[in-house]
Amino acid sequence: MTASVIPDYDETLRELSTDQGVLRYHEFGDGPPLVLLHGSGPGVSGWRNFRSNIGLFGEHFRCLILEFPGFGISDDWGGHPMVTALSALEVFVDQLGLETFDVVGNSMGGGVGIGYDLAHPGRIRRLVTVGGIGRNIFSPGPGEGIKLLQDFTENPTRDALLRWLHSMVWDPATVTEELIEERWALATDPGALESARRMYGRETFAAMIKMMNASDTPPQWAMMHKVTAKTLLTWGRDDRVSPLDMALVPMRTIPNAELHVFPNCGHWAMIEAKAAFERSVMGFLLEA
């Protein structure tokens, strides 16, 4: 595939007013709707996750990069950002009038996509996940990257951010000075940092795990046999946030799923294995 140009940030930025606050998103390209959902972590945004991919994806799809509440771009809806993310997606696609659509979700974004499919069967045509779903089988949990994320949340220093960023990738050269600077700027925003502590503060995280273990509601990984969307699971073989063994449950239980593993690649397959990721995703989405 030929190299694609990164679209302009300001020209693609949109706002959507909701009862809970303003949702911001980026729109680029023409064709059937493709909703791109970002992961979690210090300084994350949908634009930073997918800006290098939508130039190509936009040649075939109307790309819609949603900025979830609680990450410093859209208005904060309060509560736990991983919980409000699903509600935000529901509001977003309904207000835009999307009856059916495709989804590419990185880490948490993939889990939100699965959650939406379970709640609204048939609305998502095809779903692409990038790491981050399933459950640990052979590796201990939480993964190394999650522990380093907690370290940063508890003590937000540049060194802590750098250690976490390096855990996200296989090749340290991926972590450029530009990446560090833009992540640092958003990660240390008071609102974004407070939101991050609602997710990854050690006491909060432990309480969430305890609540999930005590709940009568089955965990998401136990419900994946009900996913209706045709699904492409993508994974970095060297993912230190969500190790590859986590892919086994979704690969085996999602009824219509395939798995593509990228060598020499960490948690950000769409960035670190960009060309191979785009070939796999485009082939999957455009397949008749």
UniProtKB/TrEMBL annotation:
Residues 34-277 form the AB hydrolase-1 domain. It comes from the Bacteria. Transmembrane segments: none annotated. The keyword Heme does not apply. InterPro entries: AB_hydrolase_1, AB_hydrolase_fold, AB_hydrolase_sf. It holds the Pfam family Abhydrolase_6. PANTHER family: AB HYDROLASE SUPERFAMILY PROTEIN YCLE, MONOACYLGLYCEROL LIPASE. This is Alpha/beta hydrolase. It comes from Gordonia phthalatica.
